[in-house]
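Q: Hand in one record:
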Amino acid sequence: MRRVTNVSSAAAIVFSIVLTLVLLTVYPWIEPLLGAEYSGLQTLVLAWLVYFTLAFVRNVYMATLMTDPGGYRILHHVTLFAVLGSVPCYLVFAERGPLWIIGTLCVVEVLQLALIVPRARNYWERRLQPS
């Protein structure tokens, strides 16, 4: 399970890097086709790409913890922390625009990853130890 998780996470990160490079290269040619109301969205598109990459990696690690009740208990606390930490940030930064909201989402994802990845690794180590 650990190998599948690590390979899946690495594949998502590599895919996102390649997609970012493609978007950075192609976007100047695509932007005129989108029309004036969609000009200047490259930063927003790239910010969403960062968010979805972080969310994918988090979801992969969360899925490995959801294999038994012990993992669910770990995730309950992390999810509660994420909700309680993110809602006030959304209320504060919502008026600053969508990039601030996406930035808040990214920060919450990073914090969740910081909580989930070590717990998942500890969880795997405990499961691999002989009883």
Remarks:
- The chain has a mean pLDDT of 87.
